[in-house]
Amino acid sequence: MRIVSGHLKGRRIIAPKKLPVRPTTDMAKEGLFNILNNRIHFQDIEVIDLFAGIGSISFEFASRGTQRITAIDKNYDCIKFLSKTADELEVALDVIKSDVFDYLQKTPLKADLIFADPPYDLSLENFEAIETAVRERKLLNEDGILIIEHSKHSKLDHIKSFQQQRRYGNSVFSFFEMEK
What we know:
Layout: H1 26-37, E1 46-50, H2 56-63, E2 68-73, H3 76-89, E3 94-97, H4 100-106, E4 111-116, H5 124-136, E5 140-151, E6 162-168, E7 171-177
Parallel strand pairs: 1-2, 1-4, 2-3, 4-5
Antiparallel strand pairs: 5-7, 6-7
Protein name: N6-adenine-specific methylase
InterPro entries: DNA_methylase_N6_adenine_CS (IPR002052), RNA_MeTrfase_RsmD (IPR004398), SAM-dependent_MTases_sf (IPR029063)
GO molecular function, one term: nucleic acid binding
């Protein structure tokens, strides 16, 4: 896995094989960030990365100048890897070990962008629960975006705040924007 742009462009993130992760592919990540380049100023936003895994998305934001990034994962080895890699890359990353669903119910943080990359076999009800928690708890700042990565076999376009989706191979990014 490599960082595709920014001051860390080309740096590789090599995770131990024992970690239970499915990192976003470079092709999908590049497509996602091409979309975001036209919508946001990376230096001005706060990001929450849910199901952060090895931090591929978090480090991509950091490489592009985002200063306030919170990465959430419940796996201890992922958290350890995230912290170690952030230190090696000299990136400020707030790493939190927590179940994402518990975190969404308790966090006082708000963000401009929340990215969720749950396991592709997550139940439809749990995909919906992510959007519901973000919307009902008002975890996004004004004009904020929730992006959920999922497989092409999961359909999320029926969810209340759904706006659009983009597909890259087997990966789909669904974009949600909360009502003002």
